[in-house]
Specification:
elongated; 16% strand; Rossmann fold; 14 helices; alpha/beta; 2 domains
């Protein structure tokens, strides 16, 4: 995979697959522009070299052409962020687009209409990819969030650029962050796994077993482990069909010399809301009508010690119901320990769905080493899968 830093885009037209799948309100305002901001550095690398740019992305999941999901709506925000005029092609497949792209001058930026207006995009259609490729001299993939999809613009198009295909700055950063944990991570390497269910984390657990030194298991998934070990978890969330699996994970970890840390106490309530009474119980003896919803004070303390001795930290999944303020303290205190460790030189990667939401909610995003932008793509990377969009850049 070659980085755009190794190429001079002077007089070249670069077609860039970006991820502009941003939330938009009914007035067509962009509600969160972070994905647009994240693409800026790659766009300006090409422009500053003296090249021109063709941007392509999807927006939402349209069923055919649905103008509510037109990328035209994001142009004001895009122009504001880039401080640069943006041209728009409302038929990504039409002859007019061919003509505009052919005549693009250095410094010009063209945005194509939502690629998912065409079923060929998600079908990975070769002719569609070829048509897109005909607009440019080189291809840049900067959409890590869709790199796990073998779509026309994320993967298939790369075959039409033999030596002129590159990873954008964002994609490179994501890949580097994963490598810094799973390939070149400095020991001790710690994985923190939380969230509701163990079943959704099985592939990650299996994959990281050969890489990490310690694992913290928190949140809802920890109760399946505690029950499997003979604890009374009361009314807490549990996957009864995964008890044997939990035991086999613990045995495998032991064989590999990995220390697994489970919560020892939990903040419990009789109801899944902020309203009910709250009480800390030993995790092995939760009364039958109570459920554990957050890490208790002793667990937080124990986790903090483990986090602070780690040199590399991967965090996937909250360790309590952080959406409810009464049960957010475990996740907040864990985040604070990770920040402290990061300040002392540890590398910390937050990746995958809800831990990313938690980090954003508590404003930790600038204080850890890296927060992944790609939910599904990050999870598949952590599961040890090769992402088609990344493989395509290397072939
Ligand atoms: P996941 O998508 O599997 O990472 O799960 C994230 C969800 O797990 C979040 O919405 C949390 O509220 C939830 N969660 C964390 N701890 C618990 C718990 N003790 N009981 C129930 N749900 C939990």
């Amino acid at each position: 995979m070659i980085s755009i830093n190794e190429y001079d885009f002077k007089m070249r037209r670069a077609i860039i697959r970006v991820d502009f799948n941003v939330p938009i309100d009914s007035q067509k305002n962009v509600l969160d522009n972070s994905r647009i901001k994240a693409a800026k550095s790659t766009i300006f690398k090409v422009i500053n070299d003296g090249g021109s740019v063709i941007l392509m992305s999807h927006l939402g999941r349209p069923n055919g052409k649905d103008l509510n999901l037109s990328l035209r709506h994001i142009i004001p925000e895009l122009e504001k962020i880039l401080n640069h005029k943006v041209l728009f092609a409302d038929d990504s497949m039409g002859p007019a687009t061919q003509a505009i792209s052919k005549n693009l001058k250095s410094g010009e930026i063209l945005l194509l209409e939502n690629l998912r207006f065409y079923p060929e995009e998600t079908n990975g259609d070769e002719d569609f990819a070829k048509q897109l490729s005909s607009y440019a001299d080189c291809y840049i993939n900067d959409a890590f969030g869709t790199a796990h999809r073998a779509h026309a613009s994320t993967t298939v198009i790369a075959k039409f650029f033999k030596n002129n295909k590159f990873s954008g700055h964002l994609l490179s950063k994501e890949v580097d962050a994963i490598n810094k944990v799973l390939e070149t991570g400095k020991k001790p390497i710690l994985a923190i796994l939380g969230g509701a269910k163990v079943s959704s984390k099985i592939p990650i657990i299996k994959s990281i077993m050969s890489k990490v030194d310690e694992i913290i298991i928190g949140g809802g998934m920890s109760f399946t482990f505690i029950k499997a070990l003979g604890g009374n978890i009361g009314n807490s969330i549990c996957e009864d069909d995964k008890l044997d699996l939990a035991i086999s994970i613990l045995e495998k970890a032991k064989q590999k010399g990995i220390t697994v840390h489970l919560p020892v106490d939990v903040v419990c309530s009789k109801e899944f809301s902020d309203k009910g009474d709250k009480k800390v119980h030993n995790i092995n003896s939760i009364p039958s009508d109570w459920q554990g919803l957050d890490a208790g004070p002793q667990s937080r303390e124990n986790f903090s010690v483990v986090v602070k001795r780690a040199s590399t930290i991967l965090w996937n999944g909250p360790i309590g119901v952080f959406e409810l303020s009464s049960f957010a303290n475990g996740t907040i205190s864990l985040g604070e320990s990770i920040i402290e460790s990061t300040k002392k030189g540890a590398f910390s990667l937050v990746g995958g769905g809800d831990s990313v939401s938690a980090v954003k909610k508590f404003n930790f995003q600038d204080k850890v080493s890296y927060v992944s932008t790609g939910g599904g793509a990050m999870l598949e990377s952590l599961e040890g899968k090769e992402l088609p969009g990344i493989v395509a850049l290397s072939n």
